[in-house]
Amino acid sequence: xxxxxxxxxxxxxxxxxxxxxxxxxxxxxxxxxxxxxxxxxxxxxxxxxxxxxxxxxxxxxxxxxxxxxxxxxxxxxxxxxxxxxxxxxxxxxxxxxxxxxxxxxxxxxxxxxxxxxxxxxxxxxxxxxxxxxxxxxxxxxxxxxxxxxxxxxxxxxxxxxxxxxxxxxxxxxxxxxxxxxxxxxxxxxxxxxxxxxxxxxxxxxxxxxxxxxxxxxxxxxxxxxxxxxxxxxxxxxxxxxxxxxxxxxxxxxxxxxxxxxxxxxxxxxxxxxxxxxxxxxxxxxxxxxxxxxxxxxxxxxxxxxxxxxxxxxxxxxxxxxxxxxxxxxxxxxxxxxxxxxxxxxxxxxxxxxxxxxxx
Length: 359
Description:
Strand order of the largest sheet: 2-4-1-5-6-7
């Protein structure tokens, strides 16, 4: 698995349509009424990786295993969701299991599609969702603070430090500052607003390449704090129906688009979460693995199997450029281009690895 994103937003902003397009499926019922998504739909898409396929071509791998992006389409939230309005807290809980939030914002006008608030106002829409998430976090911290207070009274120094941090975060939330933008590490508290967010401005087809006045508002206010993508869910639906890669690229070129929305989301998601890829390549399979930037060789080995990390001895590392230029592992070794690294080695993006370990 690469990473997991939850798609959130108000009802009727195009979340389910975008989900269907990104996952190239019709799993979500994209209808013109609020709450058409009753249970969170989950889809997985293959992360495009030309390097993996090129490496597999050289090795003659019988099987190619790319990494994947998991996308969860979460039902539309409304004002008061944290207090049970609309479909309530159930769907706030679904966000907790995701690595990042894709916040879809309606940035198009269409009289045939009802807006839950009766007007197109992306900044107000974002504020509504953020407020509900912050209110849910405040409630969660209330419970955690009570438990930490009991432990702190027992002279638990760790609990005392966490109590101070929780109180600081809660105070910031009360003034409208999400946990991700605060001055304190919020990771121990599993908060909704501590998750990285990617804003996706869903625009009409004519504005897919340039954006419009609504997406400009979102970029101006939030662009320095989080990635802001401009995507047309309708165009993404059309792209998802094109199987041939060359035809797909021609379609994108005609629209003046450098890449599809899926590619934008994946690229941005990897950068936002600080992720990178390493490979294990052989005649049986070519496999891509996702790790965090800064990951050590033993930690990378543990992604394959926990025993590999526990018994790690060393790793053989080959760069993909050497592998492709010289024609495979044997030629790389003969040219003296393979490196032996130890436990302290920090993985580079694209490393081809063979791990040696004790059973």
